[in-house]
Amino acid sequence: MGSNMYIDLYHVSLYVCVCAVGLTGTKYGCGGGGCGACTVMVSRYDPVEESIHHCAVTACLQPICSLYGAAVVTVEGIGSTRTKLHPVQERIAMAHGSQCGFCTPGMVMSMYTLLRNKPKPSMEDIREALAGNLCRCTGYRPIIDGFKTFSQRYVRCHMLPFTADLRNVLSLQYCNHLHTGGWTLKLKHLSF
Ligand code: FES
Ligand code: FES
Known about the structure:
Elements: H1 14-20, E1 39-46, E2 51-58, E3 71-73, H2 87-94, H3 104-117, H4 123-129, H5 141-147, H6 152-164, H7 166-169, E4 170-175, E5 182-187
Antiparallel strand pairs: 1-2, 1-3, 4-5
The chain binds FE2/S2 (inorganic) cluster (FES) (2 copies).
InterPro entries: 2Fe-2S-bd, 2Fe-2S-bd_dom_sf, 2Fe-2S_ferredoxin-like_sf, 2Fe-2S_ferredoxin-type, 2Fe2S_fd_BS, Ald_Oxase/xanthine_DH-like, Beta-grasp_dom_sf
Domain 2Fe-2S ferredoxin-type: 1-78
Keywords: 2Fe-2S, Iron, Iron-sulfur, Metal-binding, Oxidoreductase, Signal
Protein backbone atom coordinates (compact mmCIF):
# COMPACT_ATOMS: atom_id res chain seq x y z
CA MET A 1 0.00 0.00 0.00
CA GLY A 2 1.51 3.32 -1.02
CA SER A 3 1.48 6.49 1.03
CA ASN A 4 1.01 10.04 -0.18
CA MET A 5 3.52 12.64 0.93
CA TYR A 6 2.26 16.17 1.38
CA ILE A 7 4.81 18.98 1.21
CA ASP A 8 3.76 22.34 2.54
CA LEU A 9 5.61 24.75 0.26
CA TYR A 10 4.98 27.60 2.66
CA HIS A 11 7.45 25.93 4.98
CA VAL A 12 10.13 24.93 2.50
CA SER A 13 12.91 27.49 2.48
CA LEU A 14 15.09 28.55 -0.41
CA TYR A 15 18.08 27.24 1.55
CA VAL A 16 16.65 23.70 1.56
CA CYS A 17 16.14 23.94 -2.19
CA VAL A 18 19.61 25.19 -3.10
CA CYS A 19 21.13 22.39 -1.02
CA ALA A 20 18.80 19.86 -2.62
CA VAL A 21 20.24 20.69 -6.05
CA GLY A 22 23.82 20.37 -4.77
CA LEU A 23 24.67 24.06 -4.29
CA THR A 24 26.34 23.77 -0.91
CA GLY A 25 28.34 27.01 -1.05
CA THR A 26 25.51 28.82 0.74
CA LYS A 27 25.99 28.31 4.47
CA TYR A 28 23.50 27.77 7.29
CA GLY A 29 24.29 29.53 10.55
CA CYS A 30 21.46 30.77 12.72
CA GLY A 31 18.48 29.67 10.65
CA GLY A 32 16.63 32.78 11.75
CA GLY A 33 17.74 35.56 9.42
CA GLY A 34 20.28 36.97 11.86
CA CYS A 35 23.74 36.02 10.60
CA GLY A 36 23.65 36.43 6.82
CA ALA A 37 25.64 33.23 6.15
CA CYS A 38 22.91 32.04 3.77
CA THR A 39 22.70 35.24 1.70
CA VAL A 40 21.89 34.81 -1.98
CA MET A 41 20.80 37.26 -4.67
CA VAL A 42 17.20 37.28 -5.89
CA SER A 43 16.45 39.21 -9.07
CA ARG A 44 13.06 40.28 -10.36
CA TYR A 45 11.89 42.25 -13.32
CA ASP A 46 10.06 45.42 -12.35
CA PRO A 47 7.51 46.11 -15.12
CA VAL A 48 6.85 49.65 -13.85
CA GLU A 49 10.48 50.76 -13.97
CA GLU A 50 11.21 48.30 -16.79
CA SER A 51 14.39 47.19 -15.08
CA ILE A 52 15.70 44.25 -13.08
CA HIS A 53 16.01 44.77 -9.37
CA HIS A 54 18.50 42.71 -7.40
CA CYS A 55 18.03 41.99 -3.74
CA ALA A 56 20.19 40.19 -1.15
CA VAL A 57 17.99 37.77 0.79
CA THR A 58 18.58 35.26 3.56
CA ALA A 59 17.79 31.89 2.03
CA CYS A 60 16.98 30.30 5.39
CA LEU A 61 13.91 32.53 5.76
CA GLN A 62 12.77 32.85 2.16
CA PRO A 63 9.88 30.51 1.36
CA ILE A 64 10.40 28.91 -2.02
CA CYS A 65 6.78 29.66 -2.92
CA SER A 66 7.51 33.40 -2.78
CA LEU A 67 9.99 33.20 -5.62
CA TYR A 68 7.73 32.55 -8.58
CA GLY A 69 9.21 34.38 -11.58
CA ALA A 70 12.40 35.35 -9.76
CA ALA A 71 16.00 34.39 -10.56
CA VAL A 72 18.25 33.18 -7.76
CA VAL A 73 22.05 33.46 -7.86
CA THR A 74 24.11 31.63 -5.26
CA VAL A 75 27.81 32.08 -4.61
CA GLU A 76 28.61 29.29 -7.08
CA GLY A 77 27.00 31.36 -9.82
CA ILE A 78 29.43 34.25 -9.74
CA GLY A 79 32.79 32.46 -9.87
CA SER A 80 35.00 29.76 -8.45
CA THR A 81 38.64 28.70 -8.24
CA ARG A 82 37.91 26.12 -10.93
CA THR A 83 36.61 28.64 -13.44
CA LYS A 84 37.57 32.18 -12.43
CA LEU A 85 37.02 34.06 -9.21
CA HIS A 86 34.74 37.06 -9.32
CA PRO A 87 36.56 40.26 -8.23
CA VAL A 88 34.44 40.31 -5.05
CA GLN A 89 35.68 36.82 -4.14
CA GLU A 90 39.22 37.67 -5.15
CA ARG A 91 39.44 40.87 -3.12
CA ILE A 92 38.11 39.43 0.12
CA ALA A 93 40.70 36.66 -0.23
CA MET A 94 43.55 39.05 -1.05
CA ALA A 95 42.70 41.19 1.98
CA HIS A 96 42.72 38.09 4.26
CA GLY A 97 39.05 38.65 4.95
CA SER A 98 38.32 34.95 5.29
CA GLN A 99 39.48 32.76 8.15
CA CYS A 100 37.17 29.79 8.74
CA GLY A 101 35.29 30.96 5.66
CA PHE A 102 31.83 30.25 7.02
CA CYS A 103 30.57 33.81 6.63
CA THR A 104 32.44 34.43 3.38
CA PRO A 105 29.81 33.28 0.84
CA GLY A 106 27.21 35.49 2.52
CA MET A 107 29.57 38.47 2.65
CA VAL A 108 30.44 37.95 -1.01
CA MET A 109 26.80 37.75 -2.09
CA SER A 110 25.83 40.88 -0.14
CA MET A 111 28.65 42.81 -1.77
CA TYR A 112 27.96 41.32 -5.19
CA THR A 113 24.30 42.34 -4.96
CA LEU A 114 25.27 45.87 -3.98
CA LEU A 115 27.55 46.13 -6.99
CA ARG A 116 24.84 44.85 -9.31
CA ASN A 117 22.56 47.62 -8.10
CA LYS A 118 25.24 50.28 -7.72
CA PRO A 119 28.58 49.66 -9.46
CA LYS A 120 30.31 52.58 -7.70
CA PRO A 121 29.09 52.43 -4.11
CA SER A 122 30.08 54.77 -1.31
CA MET A 123 31.66 53.47 1.90
CA GLU A 124 28.31 54.05 3.59
CA ASP A 125 26.61 51.84 0.98
CA ILE A 126 29.17 49.08 1.62
CA ARG A 127 28.77 49.23 5.39
CA GLU A 128 25.01 49.18 5.03
CA ALA A 129 25.09 46.24 2.60
CA LEU A 130 27.16 44.19 5.08
CA ALA A 131 25.12 45.18 8.14
CA GLY A 132 23.28 41.86 8.18
CA ASN A 133 26.40 39.69 7.80
CA LEU A 134 28.14 38.50 10.93
CA CYS A 135 31.71 37.22 11.14
CA ARG A 136 32.73 35.44 14.30
CA CYS A 137 36.44 35.00 13.63
CA THR A 138 38.14 37.26 11.08
CA GLY A 139 36.76 40.56 12.29
CA TYR A 140 35.43 43.17 9.95
CA ARG A 141 38.55 45.22 9.23
CA PRO A 142 40.08 42.97 6.53
CA ILE A 143 36.66 42.34 5.00
CA ILE A 144 36.02 46.06 4.71
CA ASP A 145 39.60 46.57 3.48
CA GLY A 146 38.94 44.16 0.63
CA PHE A 147 35.55 45.56 -0.32
CA LYS A 148 36.41 49.22 0.03
CA THR A 149 38.48 48.85 -3.13
CA PHE A 150 35.15 48.94 -4.97
CA SER A 151 34.13 52.23 -3.43
CA GLN A 152 33.93 55.38 -5.46
CA ARG A 153 36.40 57.16 -3.21
CA TYR A 154 39.00 54.39 -3.27
CA VAL A 155 38.91 54.07 -7.03
CA ARG A 156 39.38 57.83 -7.37
CA CYS A 157 42.27 58.00 -4.88
CA HIS A 158 44.22 54.81 -5.56
CA MET A 159 43.49 53.36 -8.95
CA LEU A 160 43.82 56.32 -11.29
CA PRO A 161 47.55 56.97 -10.71
CA PHE A 162 48.24 53.29 -11.39
CA THR A 163 46.33 53.19 -14.61
CA ALA A 164 47.61 56.60 -15.68
CA ASP A 165 51.20 55.52 -16.12
CA LEU A 166 52.15 52.42 -14.20
CA ARG A 167 55.70 52.19 -15.48
CA ASN A 168 56.57 55.74 -14.50
CA VAL A 169 55.54 55.18 -10.92
CA LEU A 170 56.61 51.68 -10.08
CA SER A 171 59.63 49.51 -10.68
CA LEU A 172 60.67 46.03 -9.74
CA GLN A 173 63.96 45.81 -7.88
CA TYR A 174 65.83 42.86 -6.53
CA CYS A 175 65.87 43.19 -2.79
CA ASN A 176 69.19 41.92 -1.44
CA HIS A 177 69.78 44.35 1.35
CA LEU A 178 66.86 42.93 3.31
CA HIS A 179 68.28 39.41 2.81
CA THR A 180 64.91 38.27 1.60
CA GLY A 181 66.21 37.30 -1.81
CA GLY A 182 62.94 38.19 -3.48
CA TRP A 183 61.53 40.64 -5.92
CA THR A 184 60.02 43.72 -4.38
CA LEU A 185 57.77 46.34 -5.83
CA LYS A 186 59.24 49.77 -5.12
CA LEU A 187 58.41 53.33 -5.86
CA LYS A 188 60.90 54.94 -8.17
CA HIS A 189 62.98 57.85 -6.87
CA LEU A 190 62.34 56.91 -3.26
CA SER A 191 64.91 55.30 -0.96
CA PHE A 192 63.84 52.63 1.50
S1 FES B 1 21.44 31.05 8.41
FE1 FES B 1 21.70 32.90 9.51
S2 FES B 1 20.58 34.30 8.29
FE2 FES B 1 20.22 32.41 7.34
S1 FES C 1 35.69 33.98 8.55
FE1 FES C 1 34.93 32.69 10.12
S2 FES C 1 32.97 33.52 10.51
FE2 FES C 1 33.86 34.96 9.20
